[in-house]
Fold this protein.
Amino acid sequence: METEVRLDRHTMPALGKPSKIDILHAAESKLPNGIPLYSVNTGTQDVVKIELIFPAGTLQQNLPLVADTTNALLEEGTAKHSSEEIASMLDYYGSFLETSSHHDYASVALYSLGKHVNKVLPILEEIVKEASFPKEEIDVYLTNKKQRYLVEEKKVRVVAARNFPALLFGNNHPYGHVVTLDEYEAINRDQLLNFHRSHYASNGCAIIVAGKIKDQFLNTLSDSFGGSNWKADDLKKTGEFAISPNAEKKHYMPKDKALQSAIRMGRMLFHKNHPDAIPFQILNVILGGYFGSRLMSNIREDKGYTYGISSGVVFLQQAGYFQIASEVGSDVCDKALVEIYKEMDRLCNEPIPQDELQLVKNYLRGNVLRSMDGPFALAERFKQVWLHGLDYSYYEKYISTLAEITSKQLQDIAGKYLQKDSIYEMVVGSKKA
Amino acid sequence: MIQFERFTLPNGLKVIVHRDTSTPMACVNIIYNVGARDEDPEKTGFAHLFEHLMFGGSINIPDYDNALQQAGGENNAFTNNDVTNYYLTLPASNLEVAFWLESDRMLSLAFSDKSLEVQRSVVIEEYKQSYLNQPYGDVWLELPKLAYKVHPYTWPTIGKEIDHIKHAVMPDVKAFFQKFYCPNNAVLAVSGNVTVEQVRALCDKWFAPIPAGNPPLRKLPVEPKQTQARKLELERDVPVDAIYKAYHMGSRMDQSFYAMELLADILTDGNASRMYLELVKNKKLFSEINAFTMESFDPGLFIISGKLSEGVTLEAADEAIQEELKKVSLAQVKKEEMEKAKNKTESQLVFGEMSILNKAMNLAIFELLGGAEEVNNETERFAKISEVDLLVEASRVINENNCSTLYYRSKSKANGN
């Protein structure tokens, strides 16, 4: 290829000056009944997302599956409208609901075009306040959910993901509990009604809205959710749970004739407000948190053992943990494990070369910009600090740590948290093909 | 409404620019007009394997990802039966890095033996992960084979069989590049905090010097009209029986596509959809049921897939699906059903325009489909479908002689547990 002489195609064009990262903060106010309202008013499209957050996750449930089932069935009927009618009304305005239940909280989010939001807000209000959990809907839901459980159980990745947290937290901890089929049988309507009444209530609720927000809309929102008539008198403070890690570090769940084996490895860490939280996240990126990570470079791009391998940090309100996940050819599973440990050792024993560190810093700075692009992304950034009792200073700290952190500091962090004998290991599949 | 400007370089590269100053980011999307349908039937899976090799170093730049990450960028790519698409986002201040990277790999690859060897293994692991080691995974290897007899949609993008990937050699890789990866077989779409002048200058600098190629004129065999019902039964180690029905329909820009998309919505999208209400909730024959189109450029498939409830036979499930389909092929859907489906679609299009990546990708795809401006006619095309149009299309498509049915039996169930 001798297409040109003057153009230098070997050298990367000079990088632009990194611009200052301005984070648009959520505006904070309170509804008359005390519900905190956070509003991210920006965007190019006439759309709105309204998310209601309740202390109604697995941490708050008294029986397995109650939190999840309550959340999923909110839209399946109220005193006034059937599941079908609710869906029809939302469909008509092109709006959609997203209900989700997590360990620390549950959420009900409504997405709508701005021009229709006043029409669909009453539906959101109704399902949150007046969900009626019809028996028929519960039965259909649980029957189909059990079937899906069986299908998912055939996937090595899912089995590993379900069982790994139990090694760190113990099966009795809400963060570690492995759901069984029998537990679906134990769910009944009263439990759901009770859980709904005491957890989907104004005391405990927070609202985040994002998109093109008009003042008039905030008034309507206050009319819907600002009243004193949906308070729960019996909302308890979330309890603390004892962690009982498994005594054995290595676990193997055989699955006959699996072509690939799922690997999960990791360890307990700390809360998001821990002084090592940000440095560890940067270290995690180097190990397995981006396409050019050491695990990807070694296990996929050099050895071809897998289609993908990654590591990540999970921060919860009462704990935090680190995990590596991959599916590898069963015939090379043992070799992959050796390489994964080797990569952790290298981070403990050798300083990260300057050019690699600089690359990761640049990449992550770009990622910060990417993760704050648009109203919904900005709302999510707010939520991810707010849930942990933190504020926007967390992101300022993140950006400054990113600029300042050294190879030496990262090696110290690795030495503290990536020692081989502290790592739990789970393999689901077949270790030899 | 996505506003854009378009120009073409002398070497044939089409360029589309959409300016959005609400973001500090830019997105660069390059689509190559080559997909699995363009492959040699004896060397399938090649377009997708090639996509992996595009990250294995280009003629002047040994490591694509490394360079992009230094510029704060993130990228990915996908291949399907119709096209191969590469996209990246990065801070707009580093836009030129994207032009440097993308133009170099359009100019020429490094063709490293190591990269070919490793990516063959990676793709084989992807094959296992997505198709062989997943419950119901091989449906997407078997169903197209049943539905298409001569059109290349008969093989899946990942390839007919693992051996085709194992046997890919460097001369094939080079020939594929020569044939398809040239500026006059690609569309470049740039969106975000950029100006048209800036993009034009960068194009002149980085892409204009790349010589035009001679991409082949696409002459694919036309799938003959199906005249008889086709059936296949598989027995696998899965917990529950499943059924898949695939009906031939029109191509992406035909009226058929818009009608069948709306119909899919009416049948199975959400708690108020027909089949969900009748077959999941009322008759309890299925634990889940889905209708969708393959969105393919050439005449495609309308697919119904469902997982059966405990104790229901595949024959009974099949009959129940046909009964529901008869209702929409014999009588018009209700006005409000139609309105709901259209409103939902319109809303999805508005939400889709929130990201610069979606906008760039859609502009590029529509440019290949007949013109980037078509991206702004989507709402209108859906709106124009009347209840009568839907009925006409449904009665044309929904016919057992136009259908391939796959019964996917659970082995444990077949053996009486």
